[in-house]
């Protein structure tokens, strides 16, 4: 968004911007060591030399994704947060994927010039919180064995596609599952196929739970990125209404926002035309039980100074450097229907100089901590001592 300095445009600009700023406060944030510990465990994950099994004709079916592991070795990985959530297969196998709807078959055809996928597998890395571990243990015999170095290399490569080490961010569904220490229908597969890496995801937190992805063609400079080929509901969800499909996967319902924002004079020497700071009081309802952490999106250009509970007590949180997610530790686990209110104090450089006496708003959505897409009540207050109207 760009606004001119004219009388009316000044009014518009400050009405929009003031709702996101409060006076800059002394930084009092508490970096959650638990979040960082879980991130480190995941990012440094390796195989368990005590849990290696020979594989012959093992089939795993996840919705429309079918994994046939013909021959090879399967390595369970070391526990994450005290439980086994991943495994590596190296050998020969196949992966089959056929979307359930015509429009998604067309999507697959647009990428691969065929409406279904049948690929040979040379290796497979899976992350799970569903019945996968029980299936593996009931069908395979595990024992101690020297681990092939290739197995750990496969893990390292797969994690490179899951997150951003600079921001300390990992695929939301995986990190949320780890932090909440819960079982759900999570299943993620990094497939090293004969042609190119493919990715299959059953995401219990997504409205459309099933995703098929591939490596982006413009992926370069060592940054592993994926692009969605096809995404749709689980087959069982097509029997539900649209409201039921959407509500089953949301973690929170935001009830209200009360935001007080302050804009003050900035310094062009430091690249900021106006200083931006804000206090946002966010009231929400938990939509399912067992939540130990909740996540909000907030612009990567905003720095969080503190998060307070309704009682005014500082709570632990984590927001990575240049990250756009803020994870908050709830303390007591949230039950379904539980209500909480958190107050965020934050600031940052999100108003720039567009030249020719104009301001540039760098962030139009995530200047407020956001979660989900449901409607909510907004109470916005804007404060500034800057003269915004030309005197006549």
Q: What's the gist of this structure?
A:
The chain is built from seven helices and 21 strands.
Overview of this structure, please?
The protein folds into two domains: 2-35 and 250-384, Sandwich (Immunoglobulin-like), CATH 2.60.40; 45-243, no CATH class. The protein is α+β, with helices and mostly antiparallel strands. It has helices at residues 7-18, 33-43, 102-112, 132-139, 149-162, 172-180, 242-247; strands at residues 2-4, 47-62, 65-77, 86-97, 117-128, 163-164, 169-170, 187-193, 197-202, 210-215, 226-232, 252-265, 274-286, 291-297, 302-308, 317-318, 325-334, 339-348, 351-353, 358-361, 377-384. 35% of the residues are buried. The strands form five sheets. Strands 2-3-4-5-8-9-10-11 form an eight-stranded antiparallel beta sheet, with helices on both faces. Strands 15-18-13-12-21 form a five-stranded mixed beta sheet, covered by helices on one side. Residues 1-31 have low confidence and may be disordered. It is globular. Strand 16 and strand 17 (325-334) form a beta hairpin. The protein starts with a strand and ends in an 8-residue tail after the last strand. It has seven helices and 21 strands.
How is the secondary structure organized here?
Elements: E1 2-4, H1 7-18, H2 33-43, E2 47-62, E3 65-77, E4 86-97, H3 102-112, E5 117-128, H4 132-139, H5 149-162, E6 163-164, E7 169-170, H6 172-180, E8 187-193, E9 197-202, E10 210-215, E11 226-232, H7 242-247, E12 252-265, E13 274-286, E14 291-297, E15 302-308, E16 317-318, E17 325-334, E18 339-348, E19 351-353, E20 358-361, E21 377-384
Parallel strand pairs: 12-21
Antiparallel strand pairs: 1-20, 2-3, 3-4, 4-5, 5-8, 6-7, 8-9, 9-10, 10-11, 12-13, 13-18, 14-17, 15-18, 16-17, 19-20
């Amino acid at each position: 968004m760009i606004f001119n300095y004219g009388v009316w445009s000044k009014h518009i600009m400050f009405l929009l911007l003031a709702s996101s700023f409060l006076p800059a406060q002394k930084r009092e944030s508490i970096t959650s060591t638990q979040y960082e510990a879980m991130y480190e465990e995941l990012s440094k994950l390796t195989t368990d030399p005590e849990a290696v099994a020979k594989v012959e004709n093992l089939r795993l079916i996840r919705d429309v994704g079918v994994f046939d592991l013909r021959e090879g070795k399967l390595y369970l990985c070391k526990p994450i947060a005290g439980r086994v959530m991943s495994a590596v297969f190296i050998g020969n196998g196949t992966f089959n994927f056929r979307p359930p709807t015509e429009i998604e078959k067309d999507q697959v055809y647009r990428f691969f010039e065929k409406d279904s996928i049948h690929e040979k597998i040379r290796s497979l890395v899976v992350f799970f919180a569903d019945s996968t571990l029980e299936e593996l243990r009931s069908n395979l015999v595990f024992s101690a064995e020297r681990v092939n170095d290739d197995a750990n290399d496969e893990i390292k490569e797969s994690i490179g596609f899951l997150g951003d080490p600079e921001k300390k961010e990992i695929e939301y569904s995986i990190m949320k599952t780890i932090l909440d220490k819960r079982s759900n229908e999570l299943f993620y597969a990094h497939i090293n196929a004969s042609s190119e890496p493919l990715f299959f995801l059953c995401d219990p937190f997504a409205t459309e739970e099933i995703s098929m992805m591939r490596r982006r063609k413009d992926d370069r400079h060592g940054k592993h990125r994926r692009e969605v080929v096809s995404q749709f509901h689980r087959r069982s969800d097509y029997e539900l209404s649209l409201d039921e499909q959407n509500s089953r996967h949301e973690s929170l319902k935001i009830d209200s926002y009360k935001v007080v924002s302050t804009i003050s004079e900035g310094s062009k020497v430091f690249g900021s035309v106006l200083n931006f700071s804000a206090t946002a009081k966010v009231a929400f309802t938990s939509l399912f039980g067992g939540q130990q952490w909740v996540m909000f999106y907030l612009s990567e250009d905003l720095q969080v100074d503190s998060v307070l509970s309704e009682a005014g007590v500082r709570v632990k949180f984590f927001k990575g450097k240049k990250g756009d997610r803020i994870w908050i530790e709830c303390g007591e686990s949230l039950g379904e229907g539980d209500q909480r209110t958190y107050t965020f104090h934050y600031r940052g450089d999100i108003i720039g100089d567009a030249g020719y006496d104009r301001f540039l708003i760098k962030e139009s959505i995530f200047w407020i901590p956001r979660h989900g897409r449901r409607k909510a009540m907004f109470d916005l207050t804007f404060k500034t001592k800057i003269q915004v109207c030309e005197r006549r």
